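The following record pairs a protein chain with its ligand, protoporphyrin IX containing FE.
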Amino acid sequence: MSRRGLFGSALMAAGAATAGVVAGRLTAPEQADDRRTEPFHGPHQAGIATIAQAHAIFLSCDVAKPDRGVLRELLAGWTETAAALTAGHRVPDSPGTAAGFSNHTDFASDLDPARLTVTFGLGPAVFDDRFGLADRRPQHLQPLPGFPDDALNSAWTGGDVLAQICADDPQIVSHAFRALRARLPGLGRMRWTQHGFLGRPAGGGTPRNMFGHKDGTANARPGTREFDDTVWATADTEPEWFRGGTYLVFRKIRMKTADWDMLPLAEQNRIIGRRRGDGAPLHGSDEFDPVDLEARGPDGELAIAPAAHIRLVNGIPMFRRGYNYDYGTLLATATAATEEVAPHDHPAGTDPNHTHGGHNSLDAGLLFAAYMNNPPEQFIRAQHAMAGTDLLNGVIQHTGSAFFAMPPGMKEGEPVAAGLGL
Ligand code: HEM
């Protein structure tokens, strides 16, 4: 949706709310074109080039049986549900739903679809022997290699089929998740879910990660040649059914926010290579100033430190469309992330008998989700460049990982990955 469209919808929403107050109740938009919908059909799946919505759930599941028919039914059922919900329609009933029962729950009745998108992916194991699809494997869809700093929890790793559910209303996201899950019995087993959020400055602009830095500055803009060349798998070496698709690298990255908050601002900026406030590179004055890795400060030192994050991954193209997450201490005991209080310095004047406020048990950070068409030259190369060296490594920890081929877009009436000919 264009900025103008967004603005128009905001005005309409404001108008509706006012009307609702006058009428004494909130009225839902009645007409389809009042609704904030994203197109479901097209050459590429929605939810990739779509301006990131404010809320997301990533749902990864395994196919219940080594049976191609089961995979086919799962993908067809999920496509049907997703197409209906993104258009703002009711949840369709599954085949064989008994009289008196329905998948419809009213949980999202009268709500705007809030730019809901559901984006599907297939994990590497789908193309192992189980479904007889080995000859149709996307060329880069191999399990990701391990990296030296990984602290992966198997409970948050892998999966056969992914649904990335995004919308500007968390209730719409939860409702879509619930409707997709309801189609799993007999077809798939949930493996993991992750919930994220992303606040965006009024009027647009780059969102911020949990370290307070603008995150996404160097991303190619959707609609540009650079974006297309970075994201869409069009190479002749890809199987034909997959052309127009892309790959998604998903990493659950815990960010040690409490440790970070105790670092002086100058050190935070040195770690990233950009200023936290305005996102400008350390030698520059504007967020979008070109990065100059040779620039030196008044002290003669490199402005962007040798091990700063943006130096090590500079110019490696990928489209980062991640979400922040904050589970508080909810999952702390389930993570590899809980550790003894690591040696650290305190700001001057800290009471020597202070407690640590549980800061090492916090699980918050980044659901890193990056789209690309050549993962070995993009994510894997960048991750190797960071490993062991990047100043960021002291304050982050990769605790989950998954990798998917995201099929091209659907035509009306077709299931996702129709070209696979399941
Ligand atoms: C929690 C972990 C991470 C944090 C907090 C983080 C933060 C940032 C920030 C603040 C920037 C600068 C603004 C921007 O261009 O978006 C950036 C750039 C970038 N990051 Fe990360 N990042 C993280 C993990 C990763 C990982 C795992 C990769 C890939 C392996 C990665 C790849 C990149 C790339 C390619 C750029 C753009 C570099 C350029 O060309 O200027 N980041 N990151």
